[in-house]
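subagent[fold] <- orchestrator: predict structure for attached chain, return tokens only, no commentary.
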Amino acid sequence: MNVIREEDVVQSVAEALQFISYYHPVDFIQAVHKAWENEPSKAAKDAMAQILINSRMCAMGKRPVCQDTGIVTAFLRIGMNARFETDRTIDELINEGVRQAYTHPDNVLRASILADPAGARKNTRDNTPAVIHISMVPGDKVEVDIAAKGGGSENKSKLAMLNPSDNIVDWVRKTVPTMGAGWCPPGMLGIGIGGTAEKAAILAKESLMDPVDIHELRDRGPDNRIEELRLEIFDAVNSLGIGAQGLGGLTTVLDVKIKDYPTHAASLPVAMIPNCAATRHIHFTLDGSGPAVLTPPLLEDYPQIVQEVDDSVLKVNLDTVTHDEIKSWKPGDTILLSGKLLTGRDAAHKRIIDMLAKGEELPVDLKGRFIYYVGPVDPVRDEVVGPAGPTTSTRMDKFTRTLLEETGLSGMIGKAERGPAAIEAIRDNESVYLIAVGGAAYLVSQAVKKADVVAFPELGMEAIYEFDVEDMPVTVAVDHTGDSVHITGPQIWKKKIEAEALRIK
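subagent[fold] -> orchestrator:
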């Protein structure tokens, strides 16, 4: 019988969450690198280059790969003969580990968890509680899988109660385009099949804990129907041409993971959960000998990629940019921004809209300015700001027309596509929408030379900051005419992929 001490559980969870905040799984890095080497789409290749550069920087600086440091999910398989030396529950031990990890002074992680989700939505300040799944198994050890899942990818999860005769591959092929790019591809798809609705979702989430091995599977060939499905779905999704960050390209998913469970004769539950380019998970075992030992990857495991800046890259001064200059930008253009940049997310937008409705003066003048949809991590040591990658822009769509028409805002920066209403507002106001790469938060933060809170400080990470940026990399996603690269890019690459498939046949 192994005796698992309270402090070993807490320490292991805390160290694991710190570890995965700045170390990507090596298999994931290798998969992104392989996709980068094979990617002919310039925009998608550049996005993956930023993800790889950011990953190496985070490993060296021990800072989060993404500003959204996630909601914690833990799967525990507890041996029936293991005994815990504690008066506290397993949930209490896991949450104490989460609390210690997210408030660690050397690498503060962003607290994103809100209590009373349908009411006050008050931040718990330490990212607790985690979502915990416990199963009892034979043996005397405790196996733990732990992950930190960003909201952008979690929000794109899908569940369908299919008919038994329905085709799962067809459902996935039809559903993935509806997810947009807010889940920050390239990443993995976790799919749960069978059981009940809630069981399918748990299976999908648990499947994402497995390593990337789709190419090894293809080389050896499938042994069962689930492995056949993995390959079929992998090819079907990548043939859509969505590409990295939704910009169009060959690689949308790096792997497809599937777990299944027996189900009712009348049912075929299928859940699909994407993992983003900030994939964060780890496995460890507690056997009574002490806390888990976590082995960091070697720096040589990371490819050394330098982001190319050629004559096609535009350098823009935000302090002097004109409307005519903005109108010259085209979808897919790469831009390096310098100057003063405002930030604002959901809560700040809601405050601004409410103040405009009441005729109140805004705390900051938005006329001619650009606003960046970001909630940065708190800075440590000599940082002016912590990792500061973009959040999903569609959440701000309902505010866009009012902001553009009543404040004179010139442009917005976020991640992924905009919806039809936002695109129409951008077109009608001859504004512009730019994207930064989701999954490159530390890289983006290096462009921020100064950061001051200028409005709504009580909102914490959702306050309005003014950043002084220098050569912040962005891509034009929607130009002043309403032309969106997230619509045209995948369309172009889908046709190219189909033409190549016909040529090979």
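orchestrator: received. Logging for downstream: The longest strand covers residues 464-478. The chain has a mean pLDDT of 96.
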